[in-house]
Amino acid sequence: MTLGKDHDVNGGTIIHGTLRNEDIIPALLDYLETMPLHKSVSDDERMKKVESFKEDFRGKEPESEWAMELCYEVFDAINEYLPEGFYCGALEGDGSDFGVWLDYEQKDWDDTHKENYGGSNV
User: Fold this and answer.
1) DSSP bridge partners of 91
2) What is the rounded distance in angstroms from the CA atom of residue 17 to the CA atom of residue 24?
3) Backbone phi, then psi, for 89, in 5-degree steps?
4) pTM of the entire structure?
């Protein structure tokens, strides 16, 4: 789903119904690999980051503390490339719904922005 008229952001759910890093990390990496870029970063730089994350994840215990840290790093990488007013993480009220959402606390959204970006959160 594309959020709003002002930004081409593939928003909404990336993965839902799981808290397992072995499910979440590959889904986030797939999103990171294909998401529209909104910051001054080259596609090559992004792909190097994706490949580095994939290499780090190979052969590791997916439910280790290390894997949890990697998961946070992938969220951070996605957030680096999103425009102001959006975040990648769990949907408020549903901790197993990970995706890209409007961040009403980060940006002063007025009723027009909320309407342009699909209402309450997506």
Assistant:
1) 94
2) 10
3) 170, -160
4) 0.77
From the number of C-beta atoms within 10 Å of its C-beta (0-12, 13-18, 19+), residue 12 rates as middle
Tens-place pLDDT, residues 59-116: 778 888 888 999 999 999 999 888 888 899 999 889 999 999 988 776 565 555 555 5
Q: How far apart are CA 21 and CA 57, in angstroms?
A: 10
Domain boundaries, the chain: 2-116
Phi, psi of 90 (to 5 degrees): -80, 145
DSSP for the chain, please give it.
-EE-SS--EE-EEEEES---HHHHHHHHHHHHHHSPP-SS--HHHHHHHHHHHHHHHTTS-TTSHHHHHHHHHHHHHHHHHSPTTEEEEEETTEEEEEEEEE-TTTS---HHHHHHTTSS--
How far apart, in Å, are the Cα atoms of 107 and each of 18, 64, 70?
29, 34, 27
